[in-house]
Amino acid sequence: MSKRIYVDMDGVLVDFESGISALSPEDKIRYKNRYDAAPEIFDLMVPMPGALEAFAWLQEYFDVYILSTPPWRNPQAWTSKRMWVGKYLGKSANKRLILSHNKHLCSGDFLIDDRKTNGAGEFEGELIQFGKGQFKGWPEVISYLEKHISA
Which of these is catalytic: 10, 36, 113, 114? Predict the structure, then answer.
């Protein structure tokens, strides 16, 4: 049985900064220091470098789910995240999206997340903190996970 991996969206699969950059000048001022409240920001985001290839690779060897925390005060973000998964990850990711503010409630072997908030720090499996320490980007994460592929 393959190991289960959860992958966060913002800052891991999705380049959050690309959404900020694509906001109108007016929205950049209006939502300063709370960009995730901008109603259409998640529609503007593009994948992180290497994320689509990494996700495809993960699906070959692991039981993969997307685990993301949408901003509570931006209900449109919940739909936008679902639409982003369909647009960039396609049918292979259908029904693999979990939206939760309590990531520690999910059971699995690994969680790839850029932060320890929303329960990520209490995840019972191994937290791979993306963008930090030995996991600077997708090549380092894949290299590490290659050692954990079930025979």
Answer: 10
